[in-house]
Amino acid sequence: MPELPEVETVRRGLARWSLNSTINAVQVLHHRATNPRSVAPLDVVAGASIAEISRRGKFLWFDLDRPYALVAHLGMSGQFRIQPVGAPDEKHLRARLLLDGHQELRFIDQRTFGWLAVSANEGPVPQLVSAIAPDIFDPLFDRSAVINKYRKKETEIKRALLDQNLMSGVGNIYADESLWRAKIHPQSRCDELSPRKIENLLAAAEIVMSKALVEGGTSFDSLYINVNGESGYFAHSLEAYGRENEPCSRCATHIRRIVFGGRSSHFCPKCQRL
Ligand SMILES: [Zn+2]
């Protein structure tokens, strides 16, 4: 599933190829392409121009010259692609927007967990995104307030990291990587971690996602705006996620995988003690 670095890479690609374009028409090809919380059919955005492409956590949106925005979530496998008009349809094409009369912005999604939606947008974020907490790169991110929120959670730190209402953008991959880097066991209880430990964890999350973003940022070219949530751009740099039974790069102990809260967690049993 695409997490913050992948979605930010897509945002940058979209900004590069569609900013200031006018949306001439919208065609929806699959009923699941429209989120049920959309306040209007997607074709209401026809005639609008794209003023900005924004992101919070894993949510993207097109700021329009209208009091509403077109919000997108990539789900498990969503992709955007810019194509010339008339290019053959992709197998899993779910919606297309005709831009400036000569190119198409296409939403392609094999597993159909991704969606688009029209949402009121009177700032700072669309209504549909307003319950999502700022991510660590957001100017509105309040580090000390977030540390306090984590410290009050009576749950495991891994679960709290995935809670998009505390801090957004972190999913299973970057949670495991951040915990490895900060040397914190995924099942550590939030309310037993010191403020210093949580601060270190946030710093680790920032570093890990920044590094991933640099790698993601180099992978798109020409008219292709890709996100591959299955393998991830960052795969070769992972220290814990997906490395079960491989040696920890710090201490050579084999990485372990455990399952709790319905999710896999990967960690080094020596570096990350409970
Ligand atoms: Zn280790």
Would you spell out the secondary-structure blueprint of this structure?
Blueprint: H1 4-18, E1 23-28, E2 50-56, E3 59-64, E4 68-73, E5 78-84, E6 93-99, E7 103-109, E8 115-120, H2 143-152, H3 157-162, H4 172-182, H5 195-217, E9 224-225, E10 256-260, E11 263-267
Antiparallel strand pairs: 1-6, 2-3, 3-4, 4-8, 5-7, 5-9, 6-7, 10-11
Helix pairs in contact: 1-5, 2-5, 4-5
This protein binds zinc ion.
* Overall number of strands: 11
Highest CATH level, the class of the largest domain: Alpha Beta
Global mean pLDDT: 91
CATH architecture of the largest domain: Alpha-Beta Barrel
What percent of residues adopt helix (DSSP H or I)? 10-25%
Distance between the termini: 27 Å
CATH topology descriptor of the largest domain? N-terminal domain of MutM-like DNA repair proteins
Structure description:
This protein is 24% helix and 23% strand. It has 274 residues and is of the alpha+beta class. The protein folds into two domains: 4-129, Alpha-Beta Barrel (N-terminal domain of MutM-like DNA repair proteins); 143-267, Helicase, Ruva Protein, domain 3 (Orthogonal Bundle), CATH 1.10.8.50. The strands form three sheets. It has a five-stranded antiparallel beta sheet with strand order 1-6-7-5-9, with helices on one face. Strands 2-3-4-8 form a four-stranded antiparallel beta sheet, with helices on one face. A hairpin with a 2-residue loop joins strand 2 (50-56) and strand 3. Helix 1 (4-18) crosses helix 5. The chain is elongated, with a radius of gyration of 20 Å. The two termini are 27 Å apart. The model is unreliable at 219-224 and 227-231 (pLDDT under 50). Zinc ion (ZN) is lined by residues 248, 250-251, 253, 268, 270-271.
